[in-house]
Amino acid sequence: MTTHTPFPNDFLWGGATAANQYEGAYLSDGKGLSLVDILPDAHHGRWAALTHPKEAQATQYDFYPSHESVDFYHHYEEDLRLMAEMGFKTYRFSISWPRIFPNGDDLTPNEAGLAFYDRIIDLCRALQIEPLVTINHFDTPLAMLNKCNGWADRQMIDHYLRFCDVLFKHYKGKVHYWLTFNEINMILHIPFLGGGMDVSDAAHPDQIKYQASHHQLVASALATKLAHDIDPDNQIGCMLAAGETYPNTPNPDDVFKALETNREGYFFIDVQSRGTYPNYAKRLFKAKEIVLEMAPDDEAILKANTVDFISFSYYSSRLTSADPAVNNQTEGNVFASLKNPYLKTSEWGWQTDGLGLRITMNQLYDRYQKPLFIVENGLGARDTVTADGQIHDDYRIAYLQENITAMGQAIADGVPCIGYTSWGCIDLISAGSGEMAKRYGYVYVDRDNDGNGTLARTPKDSFYWYQKVIKTNGSVL
Ligand code: P53
Question: Closest Cα to atom 24, ligand 1: which residue?
Fold first, then answer.
């Protein structure tokens, strides 16, 4: 019996993690401090720390979730074998920049740090899992915050390229898929995670944020060139925190507001994929009184070195209104969004919208005509271990079913898609809240918000479900 599936034969099914939320071992083998290493969890002021990082740095918290995290550093073999057991074709992970360059501006790499990723990449290859590497996932070395306010300073481009040069040469022939910056648009929303900067006492934060964005965009283009020069087989992707923003009503004011909100993210991909700043940037800069400082070659660099594919994270659609009285309920969220009454909401206020993924994919492809790669998707939820020692996470399966079905529909609509890596395939620390309780994984990790637990790994029901999805190439969901 042949079952119908919209997914191509070589579709890359897998899962995604990031060093700063997964590895622990925060000072092992010469690693320097990562941005997240100075942050407490949501119950001890994480949001205040994210928005005032210099103050956070001077504060002694009782507990730092990232320091041990779920200790992938010492559990990598077990974890990669579990991924292989699910049938992963690809595994997306990030390389911790301060593990390789502890201070950011070091001139030579920390060999012990590279040795760790050698072990990961060699085992991936042995298990026939294609590595997909995020070069910078919220992980600018903390030392650079203190030295030059992170990406606010143009010298970060050189430091980043030195890091890239080491990676592209060292992993030549072993890694072919690279993402230059995780959720590059995050720099506007959480400048500390996105750009290693503190803008809390800046007179004109938007000026700093967009200038730093420019530095990252130039760095991304130069990294793309370097990757192609070193190995023409390298495929380089940009990475957007995506999710279509809908208008709250058919009022054209709301529709226009939604268009502007979508452009806040497209802004970055317009540069990375089309090679030029979009037309609307001029008016945006004028309205925000931003004057970008550019080096003479910057525009030519951006133009000549566009990305090969468009990757993105998608958790939910968003909703906006032009009426400030309606919109102001939403403060405090990373991405402001009204509550959409047509959608289910998770415990953390994120809404499930599979069709929104199909819409987002169609919009991205219509705009860029480059292959897509979904590199994050999933439901952060509280899990309970039942008396039989199992985790029956039917809510997670339901979310993934809805989203994967919609992805298949988008592919059937004619949108090319290279692969799908769901977020936090093994439970890890939440970026936004620092909690362990907000879990995304197919594999449960025994650890709680306060750091108690054995770190034992247990497959959840969703583990066996996803195994079947991969085995049938998405024909059984
Ligand atoms: P958490 C929101 C807030 C922080 C990071 O988020 C985010 C988002 C959603 O776009 O981005 C990504 O852990 C990020 C991951 C993160 C994941 O979303 O707050 O790339 O590092 O863990 C999920 O539930």
Answer: 430
User: Which pair of structure tokens corresponds to residue 414?
Assistant: 């004619």
Nearest to 195 by CA among 175, 220, 171: 220
What pLDDT, on a 0 to 100 scale, did the predictor assign at position 325?
86
Rounded mean pLDDT, 247-263 = 97
Domain boundaries along the sequence of the chain: 12-471
**Ligand 1 near 334 CB (within 6 A):** yes
12-471: CATH, from 3.40.80.10, 3.60.20.10, 3.20.20.80, 3.40.50.1110:
3.20.20.80
Separation of alpha carbons 92 and 239, rounded Å = 12
DSSP state of 202: -
Please tell me the distance between residue 455's alpha carbon and the centre of ligand 1 in angstroms.
22
Least confident of 247-256, 324-333, 353-362, 447-456: 324-333
Whether residue 164 has pLDDT greater than 80: yes
Phi and psi dihedrals of 420, rounded to 5? -145, 120
Residue 331: the pLDDT is 47
Q: Answer whether residue 2 shows pLDDT above 90.
A: no
Q: Which H/E stretch holds residue 272?
A: none
- Tokens for 284, please give them: 């945006």
| CA 172 / ligand 1 centre spacing (Å) | 29
Q: Which of 23, 68, 376, 402 is catalytic?
A: 376
Specify whether the CB–CB gap between 195 and 132 falls below 8 A.
Answer: no
Residue identifier of the C-alpha nearest atom 10 of ligand 1: 241
